[in-house]
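can u pls check wat happens w/ nicotinamide-adenine-dinucleotide
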Amino acid sequence: MSMSNNLLKGKKGIIFGALDEKSIAWKTAVRCHEEGAQLVLSNAPVALRMGEINKLAEQCNAPVIGADVTNMDDLKNLFEKSMEHFGGKIDFVLHSIGMSLNVRKGKHYTEMNYEWNQKTLDISAMSLHRVLRTAWDLDALNEWGSVVALTYIAAQRVFPDYNEMADAKALLESVARSFGYHYGVKKKVRVNTVSQSPTRTTAGSGVKGFDGFINYAEAMSPLGNATGEDCANYCVTLFSDLTRYVTMQNLFHDGGFSFTGVTAGVIDKMG
Ligand SMILES: NC(=O)c1ccc[n+]([C@@H]2O[C@H](COP(=O)([O-])OP(=O)(O)OC[C@H]3O[C@@H](n4cnc5c(N)ncnc54)[C@H](O)[C@@H]3O)[C@@H](O)[C@H]2O)c1
């Protein structure tokens, strides 16, 4: 119980996307548990077969319920089982899911395969709509509940090698705003995206030229790149009652990168 302030005492949450110890979702689950939350962990059936998640389940004393986020039956089952497990509704959800078929298969943006692109958008963006819709239909979230999805600044500015994921993230952020409006009006549920610095994880490292990418961001951020652990801390605050009027926002968690034109460190390298 390091660093615990019981910020999430009595709260119940579903965490999507913990693949291994490097995953942002993994680190967030650990921090939520330390802050007193009860958790259900979920990931795609293929990811569960790796077995890593069982370590996290043990550490957080949380059940693991598989769900492919593109499958509405899987999501319904997950939310129903979670409410059964908690004996009540859910207070927060972390959507920490991303996958690009065109990136994985080495297709350049200008030559994308549109079927793969549909799958990418479904897994990485519309899945947030699917998750919110499932919760909405089952009335599964408590008032003042909080839903957070992870995103990247390629939604606003071009990072060529981020490829179709840039479009997926733009769509994800838009869904957070649009559904955030409706869920706010209906149930005071808030929905936000956290735009995180490049982070060494399985999904992150899939981006071409990732080393250059992460080093450049480090040099371009007054505070340096935000770590996965710090991202987890930020998510805890957004799940807590200390941020109740924050909704429909894209929140940069990036050491200042997003509003920096240039840094002395980068200029020195150019000179
Ligand atoms: N790593 C970075 O540099 C970085 C930066 C900004 C934002 N993000 C975002 O953070 C989130 C988490 O990624 P990460 O970096 O922790 O990597 P990660 O590879 O650990 O997590 C991605 C997760 O998505 C899951 N997933 C893929 N397809 C799925 C499906 N059909 N159903 C359910 N789950 C599925 C994977 O199993 C995995 O657990 C992603 O949205 C990613 O785009 C990452």
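The longest strand covers residues 141-151.
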